[in-house]
Every structure is written in structure tokens, then in C-alpha cells.
Design goal:
- The protein has 148 residues and is α+β, with helices and mostly antiparallel strands.
- The radius of gyration is 15 Å and the shape is globular.
- An eight-stranded mixed β-sheet has the order 2-3-4-1-5-8-7-6.
- The protein is built from three helices and eight strands, in the order E-H-E-E-E-E-H-E-E-E-H.
- Strand 7 and strand 8 form a beta hairpin.
Length: 148
């Protein structure tokens, strides 16, 4: 199973959950403080909502969720063969999930793409329980970097 991931910053998580529940006809698969995700069957989509007041409606990052670590590895080798560099994040905790993933480097307009698999659920956003996190840093770090 593979599906495209779209991660959006939203101003109001509850309002966004209500909207996307109606839009896709499905309840969220996971809801945590400042975070929700939908596993939409048709079209195959992993929609991630990250509460970030003042940045609502903006793209946070893009990704492709794959079935397992072997597929993550195969995709990383394929992209290396296409001269695309990557940044590894294996055994990481992000967005309330333990993951094996990598980030594709060098998109011409700076958009962020991750190729990942979920290994297990996590009770905390980043493994330590401190600060909200997603996709390469804590919320405050990403704001400072202009990536959130």
C-alpha cells in the first residue's frame, strides 16, 4: 500500500477536522493535541492537519507513505539513482508515530517531501513529550526556520 501524504497547517484544528470529515466522508484515524490525520481510502490519501494558528491554509510538507522499511529503502536507492539526495531519519518519532523515513533534498521550489513507513503508534509527538513536533523539528524550531 502506498498513498500520497498532504500535510497542512491549520488555524483551528477542530474546525478543520469537521470540514475534512465531511469532505472525505470519514473520521480522522488519529487525533492528538494540535494534530490529526485522516487515512482516506478513495482517493488514497494520508491527510495530516497540524494546528499552527496564523499559518492556516498553507502547505507544511508532502510525502508518500509506504508499506514497510524495505520499500523506504528501495525508494531511497531509486531516487539516489536519479541523482536526488536524501536525508535519513530512521527509528524517529514524529507526528505521534515511530517511523523509518527519509527526506528528499533539492526540490526546486523548496517543498519538502518525505518517504516513510509507520512502525508503531506513539503516545507523544516526538518521543520525549516536549513541544509539538512534525517533520524534521519541533513546532518552534520549524517556525524559526520558516518551515512551519
Amino acid at each position: 500500500m502506498s498513498r500520497v501524504q498532504l500535510a497542512l497547517d491549520v488555524d483551528d484544528l477542530d474546525a478543520s477536522i469537521a470540514f475534512y470529515t465531511r469532505l472525505f466522508g470519514t473520521e480522522p484515524a488519529k487525533v492528538r493535541p494540535g494534530y490529526a490525520n485522516f487515512a482516506v481510502a478513495d482517493p488514497p490519501l494520508k491527510l495530516v492537519l497540524l494546528e499552527n494558528p496564523g499559518s492556516g491554509g498553507s502547505l507544511n510538507h508532502l510525502g508518500v507513505e509506504v508499506a514497510d522499511t524495505a520499500t523506504v529503502d528501495a525508494e531511497q536507492r531509486r531516487l539516489a539513482g536519479a541523482d536526488l539526495e536524501s536525508l535519513d531519519e530512521r527509528g524517529t518519532t514524529c507526528c505521534y508515530a515511530e517511523q523509518d523515513k527519509f527526506w528528499v533534498e533539492g526540490a526546486p521550489d523548496g517543498e519538502r517531501w518525505e518517504i516513510y513507513t509507520v512502525l508503531a503508534d506513539s503516545p507523544t509527538p516526538n518521543g520525549s513529550g516536549e513541544d509539538a513536533v512534525c517533520c524534521g523539528g519541533t513546532t518552534s524550531e520549524l517556525i524559526e526556520l520558516g518551515r512551519h
